[in-house]
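agent> step 3/5: call structure_predict on target 'Phage protein, HK97 gp10 family' (Eubacterium barkeri).
agent> reason: downstream docking stage needs a structural representation; sequence fetched in step 2, passing through unchanged.
tool.input:
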Amino acid sequence: MQITINSNEFEKLQNRLITIGSETLVGKINRRIVLSGQEYGAKLTEKKAPRSKDHSKSGPQRGSGRQTPPGHAADNVAIGKVSKKGYRYSGNIGWEPEDDSPHFYERFPIYGAENLREQKTFEPIKADVEQYIKRMTEAEYEAAIKEAIG
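tool.output (status=ok):
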């Protein structure tokens, strides 16, 4: 699941912050907001992700050299790097198609596979994370403006 700060909603606050502070300040704030959103989304995923009674039966099923990943996938939710395009910052929560971590098999229910339809695992979580990011963005921008004004 990808999360992004929607700059259009906060354009007035962002422009005001740029005139008071600098573009670097806005970048640092946006990066901090996305990182916080990723952590929040990972915590929500941990709570809502399915867990097996015995995780030693999880993981790749083929081959004689089968290795069991450490812990449940729900306890090891992947958090991607924060990326930037212009003023737009975004980050990923969960497993990407090119993932090769010990819990790589979690990408199959998310993106689908040859014999497995795509499941909407992150859809309910995405709405919660977007609301969290909106609240966080407003609070962070307003706090930075108050601090800059004095």
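agent> step 4/5: record observation. Helices lie at 11-20, 23-48, 107-111, 123-149.
agent> proceeding.
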